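Is pyridoxal-5'-phosphate placement plausible here? Inputs below.
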Amino acid sequence: MSADRDPTRSSSEKHPIMGKRTLLSTGHVFLPDEAASERDEARVAESLSTFDPHDWDSVRGQFSLAGEYAYFAAFMLASHPIPVQNAIVSFRHGLDNFPERFQMGVADLEHATRAREAIARYTGTAPGQVALTDSTTMGLGLVYRGLRLRPGDEVLTTTHDFFSTFEALRLRAAADGAEVRRITLYEDPAAVSADQLVDRLRQAIGDRTRALALTWVHSNSGVMLPIRAVADLVAEVNADRDEDARVLLCVDGVQGFGVEDVDVAALGVDFFITGTHKWLFGPRGTGFVWGADHAWARLDATIPSFSFPAFTGWHTAEAPRGEPGVLHTPGGYHSFENRWALPVAFEFHEAIGRARIAERVKVQAAQLKEGLAGLPHVRLLTPRAEDLSSGLVCCRVDGMREDEVTNRLLTEHRISAGVSPHRDTCVRLGPSIVTTPDEVDRLVRAVASLR
Ligand SMILES: Cc1ncc(COP(=O)(O)O)c(C=O)c1O
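Reply from A.M.:
I modeled the complex. Tokens:
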């Protein structure tokens, strides 16, 4: 039992919200379980001391996820593995006990640098090109709001992107009339080819196109764009353009980040925008924008950074000069304990191995797709091809609403899945490092039994 727990107070007094029943939109009722959290504490200590990053059971043991559930929801909001939980708790205790220990948050200058360094190591980029954010959505908002566009310039995007890209561009257009054109890359996601995707973009890029706003892995189909081939196309288009007329390739990478075994630097994009609180299992409320130097040079910052150059600029009345990642990181005090724990999430991931994780996720995704494809009442939306899909698997079940599917998976089979929030919604399934091939079989059997 932890020192700060007072056994004389009832759980509802200690947790005014969690002490009551929490009704999720799925209609499923979760009850807070004090005994379970005490069991958890013992398990945390035990599993940390025996953690073997090369043993998948041991990896799964690093999560406090309730053991009787199978979690096929890595595309949503991460559970923190124990090392990340511990880092957060220790930073939080420090801040709660004596904020001066962290210079009231000024220590963020040092800890944010460590977070940037961890991101740069993992992505093969440079720390000064990395701006820290709270989410993919924040990064998309900053990029699409800040892009320097002249009258007549357009942003080309697609009908397959997530709400956050759509809304960031809508807000930009509403603010200054920026032109946004939206195209469709495929009608049948399961049958798409890399050539088709690149050709549709080739045909759509026009003389006035200054930015492509794309998504690496589409959250409503699981289609993974061949980003390297798209980057090659953009390089071709840009070859005879002046610097300020070049097309910038901006990518929401969140549904591939932490799955694909690739350096972001090798993708050939200009801006890579992601959260680190999905497939990477990083701290909730963390993410980043990586930009190439020439791309940052075409972006205006929106939110003041809390950085040395910015404060110096305030004192000297000169425009701040410094690394773009630093100047584009939104300032103000943050939920520092989560941001500061980010390097631990990368260390955890790297200890297991990026290539091993990619293989583990992709093998399960292939197994899941094969199983679902064999069910006559299921329509698999995600391409079977490995180079056109990642960990996310999307499908629809004949005659059944998507929320009914996920409710029944949860309540009858103890399987956590998701419903996409797109208008033409689908069921989303995300095998990951917290699921197993046996659980994939269980999931396929569960979907087979839905009639
Ligand atoms: C493609 C895509 N982009 C962005 C988001 C939002 O991510 P975040 O919570 O990091 O803003 C999601 C889903 O939550 C998504 O599927």
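Short version: The chain has 17 helices and 15 strands.
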